[in-house]
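User: I'm preparing a small set of examples for a lab meeting where we compare how different chains pack in three dimensions. I only have the primary sequence for this one, and I'd like the structure in token form so I can line it up with the others. Please keep the answer compact; I'll paste it straight into my notes.
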Amino acid sequence: MATPMAMRFLSDQQTYLFTDFRHIDPGDLKWLGSDGEPLRLKPGLEPSPSAAAEPQPTAFARPVRQPHGIRLEAQQAQKIGPLDPGIGSYTLGINALLHEGGRYRLWYWHGKHGHYAESDDGFSWHFPTFGRYEIDGSTQNNAFFGVPPERGRRNLDGFTVFVDASAPASERYKMVFMAHVPEDEFERRWAEYRALHHRYQDVRLRPGKFTCVYGGVSPDGLDWTLLPEPLFTHFTDTITTAYYDEWLQRYVLYTRMYLQGRRWVGRTETADFHHWPPVEPLLWPRIDESPSNDIYTNGRTAYPGEPSIHLMFPMFYERWNQISRIRLYSSPDGIVWNEAPGEPVISPGTPSQWDSDFLVAGTGLVPLADERVGLLYSGTSYPHKYPRWPHVREAVSTGWACWPRGRLCAVVADEQGEFFTFPVQPQGRELRVNFQATRGGGLWVGVEGRSGRALTDCDPLFGDSLGQTVRWHGESDIGTEEEAPVVLHFKLRAAKLFGFEWS
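Assistant: Understood. Below is the structure token output for the 503-residue chain.
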């Protein structure tokens, strides 16, 4: 059930990750009189006995739940690759990756066609033969979708697939893609577009190069029915991401924009998949960084099993050398975004490696074996605008960017730090923490206001664990009444805390 914004992150989550400050209480000061009693904001109206007796009263500050000694730090991925050349060669488009029923399902583009592959482990891929489209003189290929001829004057672009849990079974899968408007529709579409306010008009759209975003529906992600009318007018020649947000009860789409001569990330949302409003700017190159940077693709996804943990892996393109790096962004609602501090999470390899120059993050963070989560990415050893001779196109490959489960970003205490959470609703009687701490450091956890569960009662935690149970004098029960919200108190010394979960 949808909950108000203020309560959404403390009601029913099983897993909490520290990808931003949403779970960390900012704290405050409480002002006390000389007798130690709290003072009102306007104490002259009802002064405390001690304040009233003083000719010039003095207030004393007491910190309340103030965090200190901590910072956030994005964690760099472990890169594995290159993988099977069938999903990398000739394409930088990992357009949709889902983990369904124990299978990895991948939709990607190559030329004017959408292709499909699947895998049991994410490393060995099967490419089914559909026989639907002739490519290079043969229909023995895994192309499941092609741009209709009347709209196919360019390659398939802006393409993605997503699951719509709100739709009937026949429309469970949704697809969006960019294509040219048929010639007999151009005049009407062009007039409608030119009637929009200038803020919604794109310098890339013009007669002879006029495109819209179209949609399709499917019961299985393979057999598609195309919608006859475009969803909206836009030019998006890279990866688009879309999903149905159950909390907003709206469809949300992220795509590329081109403003001020640079690539930006735009967003639009709608309650009706068939009709979308114009795209609005969302992320753009920051003015405290190089003026040569673009934000090329968005890489929006969610943490597996936790749709409220909105993530982006945007590709920052550096025009001065035409290489790219992938950063981590986080959002509580998919609307307001922050970059996780620290280095890029996926960076080019060394000059001798296959991914030494240009990288693109795919769409879809999924669970992997060995307690990992991963994101497919494409890379090449050539700069982005290097002449695309056949051997250059063939150099594109695909790999995994992997993290230990839950370890995308950390609360770090280089020395000693402390913080409180907002009230959270326990989803179990035990608390497990995902952390790293040296033996000379440590992690301690308290449950505020519960006797026997304070920081000083906590058995010290050190080492490296994805889910170590917190204990107080050897007891693991959190010691609260059933269904009572709790405030957690964390103390770190030379430690990283990635998150916590209930069990």
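A couple of notes for your slides: The first helix runs from residue 49 to 53. The longest strand covers residues 431-447.

User: Perfect, thanks.
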